[in-house]
Design goal:
By secondary structure, the protein is an alpha+beta fold. The chain has 14 helices and 4 strands. A 4-stranded antiparallel β-sheet has the order 2-3-1-4. The two termini are 33 Å apart.
Length: 420
């Protein structure tokens, strides 16, 4: 009985129904009288509770106050920023390879970085920031609005801070398919933005010129090396020929041999004349005629001279004075052999030098024809109206994120409370 009462207390509707007296039909066939049960309301009237005030306070602190503060800062403290745009591409003189006519397959299949890729990374690098800062004093230009510490640069920052701020103010867009580079530079003064854009273009041109010089050096390096080797070889062989001529005191062994051969032919002719004269004397005079003895002496002298001249050509052992031995060496055959070897080396060295010189001139001309340069299709612009900061966009994004965070935290808090 006690348990039934507890259940009635727990469920007031059941208790109200049980407490209502039942009606009975007095007359047969008469309808029963209508019964209206007395039910308690299912819930008490809504009223503000402390958790509702806490939720409203959290919305005020997390959403309304930050959004209002951001609105006040953007409208009163944030400085206007002006944008200057410049667009350019890297152009290359000279004919393109034949494979490029097939749809640029060489650029797709090659894993090497192009000049535009290098320039894209260079514009965002710390070296570019240092070069522009050295010429324009970026710290002064980016820290002009003293009342705007959020968007302005702190002039006491390091070069790494300046590089990070540079990436905020300078946006680079690069299309790898066309090689076009678009740069948007923002600053607190339109003339400063245009000046920075011009300096970026100037420094990029210097970088491309540097890359072009490196490419020319690479293209002519091996040809220049071959040319230097050929020139050194030709110089060395010419020095050997000069030393040979100085040692043996012969300017041209071939010319000297031609002279010696002429002398030998003359001696043979004189020998023939002397023999004829001797035979004629023997036929017309007595055997003891002194003219016959003189003819014999003349023939002997000519014969000895012919023998000596023939020995100079290496046809026998040389018996000459030390000075003549120093001058003639082992004979004309040896001298001529040495000189012929030096002449062959000189001719080969001269041909190699001419070939290397031609290759070097061709490589240098080709490298000069394939020089690189920047072609600007959009000159640095001068802004008339401020485009940044985009106050409406910043405010809406901030309010949306704050509201999202507040909603998530509120749901998490209520889910924790319901589980208790």
């Amino acid at each position: 009985m006690t348990q039934i009462r507890k259940q009635q207390d727990k469920f007031p509707i059941i208790r109200a129904v049980e407490s209502t007296p039942l009606t009975t039909t007095s007359d047969k066939g008469a309808p029963p009288a209508s019964v209206t049960p007395q039910l308690r309301p299912p819930a008490s009237p809504a009223a503000l509770r402390p958790r509702h005030w806490g939720l409203a306070l959290s919305f005020l602190l997390m959403v309304l106050m930050p959004t209002t503060t951001a609105l006040w800062y953007l409208q009163t403290r944030a400085a206007d920023q002006y944008a200057s745009r410049v667009g350019f591409s890297v152009r290359k003189e000279g004919s393109s390879p034949a494979i490029d006519l097939l749809g640029g397959l060489s650029g797709v299949s090659s894993g090497r970085a192009t000049d535009s890729d290098i320039l894209y990374e260079f514009i965002q690098s710390q070296e570019m920031v240092q070069r522009v800062d050295a010429r324009l004093n970026l710290r002064r230009l980016f820290s002009k609005p003293a009342r705007d510490p959020l968007f302005a640069f702190d002039p006491t920052g390091s070069i790494e801070d300046l590089r990070d701020y540079w990436q905020r103010m300078v946006k680079v867009s690069y299309d790898a398919g066309t090689g076009l580079i678009d740069i948007r530079v923002t600053a607190f003064d339109p003339r400063d933005a245009r000046t920075i854009a011009r300096e970026i273009f100037s420094q990029s041109s210097r970088m491309i010129n540097h890359l072009s010089a490196i490419a020319r050096d690479d293209a002519t390096r091996y040809a220049k090396k071959d040319l230097d080797v050929a020139a050194a070889r030709l110089k060395a062989i010419r020095q050997k020929i000069t030393a040979f001529r100085s040692r043996f005191r012969i300017l041209d062994p071939k010319a000297d041999i031609r002279g010696q051969m002429g002398l030998l032919n003359t001696l043979h002719q004189q020998m023939a004349e002397a023999l004829i004269q001797q035979d004629m004397l023997r036929q017309t005079t007595r055997a003891n005629d002194p003219r016959i003895a003189e003819a014999r002496r003349r023939i002997g002298v000519i014969q000895r001279r012919i023998t000596a001249e023939r020995k100079k050509f290496g046809l026998g052992p040389t018996r000459t004075t030390p000075a003549d031995s120093t001058r003639r060496g082992d004979g004309y055959s040896v001298l001529l052999s040495r000189y012929e070897g030096l002449s062959v080396e000189r001719d080969f060295a001269e041909r190699a030098y001419l070939s290397a010189r031609t290759a070097f001139d061709s490589a240098r001309a080709e490298a000069q024809r394939q020089s690189r340069y920047l072609a600007a299709y959009v000159e640095p612009t001068l802004a008339q109206t401020a485009e940044y900061p985009r106050r409406g966009l910043i405010l809406s994004l901030l309010a949306g994120f704050l509201f999202l965070i507040w909603s998530i935290l509120s749901l998490v808090a209520y889910s924790i409370k319901d589980r208790r």
